[in-house]
Amino acid sequence: MNNVEFDDLIGQLRQENEALKVELEEKSHKALQLEQLILSKDRAGLNLKQAEKAHHEELLLLRTLINHLPSSIFVIDNQYRKTAFNEAHLKRIETTLGKQVKLSEEDILGKTNWDVYPKEVADQYYEEDRKVIEKGETVIEREIFQTDKLGNQVWETISKIPMRDDDDIIIGMLGIAHDVTKNKLAEIALHDSEERYRFLFENNPAPMLIYKRGSLQILAVNEAFINHYGYKKEEALTMVLPDFYPENEKETIVQFTAGLEGYKNVGEWHHQKANGELITIISTSNDIVFEGQKARVAVITDITNRKLMENKLKASEEKFRLISNSAHDGIFMLNEESRLIYWNPAVEKIFGCTGEELAFIDINRLLLSPKQEDKNDRVIQVSSIIDTFGETGLSLDVEVKRRDGEFIQIELSLAPLKISDLWGAVGIVRDISERKTVEKELILSKERAEESDRLKSAFLAMMSHELRTPLNAVIGFSSLIEETMEVHEIMEMVKIINDSGNHLLSVIDSIFSLALLQSGTSKVLTEDFPLSNFLTGLKPYITTRLVKDKKEHLDLIVNTNTVNPELIIRSDRTKLTQLMINFFDNAIKYTTNGSIEYGCMVEGSSFTFYVKDTGIGIPNDKQTLIFERFRQVEDSLTRTHGGVGLGLSICKEIAELLNGEIWVESKSGHGSIFYFRIENIVAE
Predict the structure, then answer these.
(1) Distance (Å, rounded) from C-alpha 343 to C-alpha 349?
(2) 83: which DSSP letter?
(3) Less Cβ around it within 10 Å: N or C end of the chain?
(4) Which residues face 368 on adjacent strands?
(5) Closest listed residue to residue 676, CA positions, set 571, 613, 606, 614
(6) Separation of alpha carbons 99 and 57, rounded Å
(7) What is the C-alpha to C-alpha distance for residues 384 and 409, in angstroms, rounded to an integer?
(8) Rounded to whole angstroms, how far apart are CA atoms 133 and 76?
């Protein structure tokens, strides 16, 4: 193909292309017009549908609202058929019929009351519905009471309004029913409560009144108030609250009641009766609403008699307190746990304790005896007093330790006491230490008197024996001596007469010596002398005495090993010698075999003289008795050994006169050691 042909072909194609473009534009324009036409029609249809949809939604919303209203709503046409109703109305029908199975809308829609309810119920509804539909009457909130098939009491208020068309012709009825059962039951309960309150108010045995807040006007009084106060009811209702108060309390009660709103109050006041009598009362008041008015109700308790009893009790308690506080004896009370709950000052004085120390203390802690081994032992247990001692209680004497460490004797009396259904005890405690001391002194005096009588008898018996025996020997043997008798016979009798005289002289000398020592007329005559010479100087006396008593076989031991030969002592040598000689006489008398030892032990400034024998010994229970006058281990007239029982008594008196002490160590059958200790006798 040449260039000309090619150019012609291109031109032809361009023309065809331009024709197609025009045709395309025309078709596009027509298509656009058609599209706009279609779109316009679609928009009109869409608006109609939207309007219908909105209307439908509004109807659904309205129906939903009506269905969820708690009130029963229903519509009846002029043929008495139900044409519309909500779910609450459907439930109302179910409740009335007592149906256990749920009803559907189809079961009720288009039906009359006769189709739904029992005839008597339907007839009742018809009479009222007919007046609305046929006569155009309106029913506003008429109250209906009925009992459903399940026996439940139901109260409703129902309103019925005629429905008219555009020509004002009644075409049906709109009904609205409200279930007011809860409100009605509350109203009934409130009414019952008010009736009960009124009944309780009127019949309460306690006086009651109601007054208006602010003005204090009396609004109500009960029968008990009228009877107790003596006012007539009409008179009381004309009064104000302060009228019942004495003059000195009127202004106070007005000011006081102004601040009581919202508070319960219990207070003690005075009221005046109609006859002028003044009484003491307790008023308990609360806020109430009475007949629509803000008020207060007061319950009144007359405590006049109780106050009189309280005053008497206080007076009695005061008397008891005065008596208790002035009593020298301790008075106390215990609770059921044996703890102190009351005590008077005398208890504090007796036990040496303060009030703080005694508060709720266990009484047994105050009664600890110094001899009590187990401090947990309980002397007193209130719970067991009645079982153990009965209603009379217990009484005991015990030794106790005061807080200051002093031991005292007390007499304790305790009796059970019931306090508020719990057992306690009331007790009296008395310090009898002085009395016990006097009793002991009386007992000792009695014993001393008895001992004195016994000693007198023993003395007379001894004197009868120890004096008459040598006198009889002197007189008897003197009368037997004759000139015709042989010289040796006369000498034997003279020796007996001499020995008896010496014995008699010894007895009389011992009696005089003891009398002088006890009378205080015997004086201490001190002198300086060597201790060693004093001890060795006693040996000849002992030796002579052993020969005289035919006891030369006894060993004599003189112990001077601990004594310094140059030691000089200062004392009454005569009395010291007399003491040692009495020790020797006692040892020789009661020693048959063995030995006799004597000496002095020096320890610092202490000098202890002793005489030891191997004689018969002394029982433990007699070791104190032998130092008493006219007393021996054997007091009977049949005793083996002679003597008047004054030797050791004289030793004791000498020891006391020299400011020393004397004692014995002995065991029956094993000999004895007599000691005499004296202090500070070294010569300067």
Answers:
(1) 11
(2) E
(3) C
(4) none
(5) 606
(6) 33
(7) 24
(8) 9
CB 86 within 8 A of CB 69: yes
pLDDT tens figures, 370-380: 655 445 555 67
Name the phi and psi angles at 131, rounded to 5.
-65, -30
Q: What tokens were used for 39?
A: 């779109």
List the structure tokens of 541: 């006396």
3-state secondary structure of 100: coil
User: Could you tell me which of 557, 562, 615 has the C-alpha nearest to residue 590?
Assistant: 615
pLDDT score of 251: 93
Of 600, 590, 608, 609, the closest CA to residue 671 belongs to 590
Give how far the C-alpha of residue 22 lies from the chain's centroid of Cα atoms, to the nearest Å.
124
CA dist 554 and 543 (Å) reads 10
One-character DSSP codes across 598-664: EEEEEETTEEEEEEEE-SS---GGGTTGGGSTT--S--STT-SS---S-HHHHHHHHHHHTT-EEEE
Task: Dihedral sign for Cα 213, 217, 219, 224, please.
Answer: positive
CA distances 612 to 85, 244, 541, 654, 677, Å, are: 141, 106, 16, 19, 15
The sign of the torsion formed by the CA atoms of 306, 307, 311, 312 equals negative
Query: Phi and psi at residue 431, in whole multiples of 5°?
Result: -80, 110
Chain centroid to Cα 671, Å, comes to: 65
Give strand ranges (E) for 402-516.
Answer: 407-419, 422-431
Could you tell me where the beta strands, DSSP code E, fall in 127-261? 139-147, 153-164, 170-179, 208-212, 218-221
Q: What is the pLDDT of residue 53?
A: 66
- Spatial contact of 126 and 136, defined as CB atoms under 8 Å apart: no
Task: Tally helices (H) and strands (E) across the chain.
Answer: 21, 22
Q: What stretch of H or E contains 22?
A: helix 3-68
Structure tokens of 237? 């209702």
| pLDDT for res 236 | 93
Distances from the Cα of 638 to the Cα of 224, 508, 634, 635, 641, angstroms = 102, 22, 8, 8, 9
Nearest to 642 by CA among 461, 457, 462: 462
pTM confidence score: 0.38
Choose among 52, 55, 146: nearest CA to 98: 146
Q: Within 10 Å of residue 634's Cβ, how many Cβ atoms?
A: 12
What is the pLDDT at residue 427? Answer: 87
Cβ(532)–Cβ(560) under 8 Å?
yes
pLDDT along the chain (684 residues), means of 10: 46 52 53 57 57 62 69 89 86 75 83 88 86 89 76 83 89 88 79 76 90 94 94 94 94 92 92 94 92 92 91 86 86 87 90 88 79 56 66 79 87 81 84 88 87 70 63 68 75 74 66 62 82 89 88 90 84 87 88 92 88 90 73 50 67 86 89 90 71
327: Cβ contacts below 8 Å, ≥ 6 apart: 344, 346
Residue 329 is given by DSSP the state S
Contact 664, 674 (CB under 8 A): yes
The structure tokens 């409560």 sit at 193
Distance CA 397, CA 600 (A): 49
- The CA distance from 587 to 585, in Å, is 6
Q: What pLDDT is stored for residue 217 in this prediction? A: 96
DSSP string, 349-403: HHHT--HHHHTT-BHHHH---TT-S-TT--S--HHHHHHHH-TT-EEEEEEEE-T
